[in-house]
Amino acid sequence: MWRNDPAAFAKTHTLSLALARRLQATAEHLTPRCKGGDDGGANIVAACLYCNTQRHRARTTLRPDEYLRKVRKRVASNRWHSVRLEGS
């Protein structure tokens, strides 16, 4: 993820600028505010823009512990992103 310079991130990892923009760092609420989540540090994690928007498109919102298991399982099987970064 990047925070300040999408062009530099794209160049470093040999990505198009459009793809690099999907990997921008965003703040994600583990428990959505609409379901009683707050803006405290324990409820906020970093997520790329793509993951943040995809999570909200799901029919049901997973609890934080369920989502953590999903992320760990997908990362362990190398299926989290179709994006493969070069230079990492």
Write a brief structural summary.
GO terms for molecular function: endonuclease activity. The chain has 88 residues and is an alpha+beta fold. It has helices at residues 6-12, 17-22, 49-57, 64-76, and strands at 25-29, 44-48.
What percentage of residues falls in helices of 4 or more residues?
Answer: 25-40%
Structural class, judged by helices and strands? alpha+beta
Strand order of the largest sheet: 1-2
**Order of helices and strands, N to C?**
HHEEHH
Q: In one word, what is the shape?
A: globular
Strand content range: 5-15%
How many helix segments?
4
Nearest-integer average pLDDT: 85
Major sheet characteristics: 2 strands, antiparallel
GO molecular function, one term: endonuclease activity
InterPro entries: HNH
Keywords: Endonuclease, Hydrolase, Nuclease
Organism: Sphingomonas hylomeconis
Describe this entry's structure for a reader.
The protein is an alpha+beta fold and 88 residues long. It has a domain of 53 residues. It is built from four helices and two strands. The protein has a two-stranded antiparallel sheet with strand order 1-2. The termini are close together. Keywords: Endonuclease, Hydrolase, Nuclease.
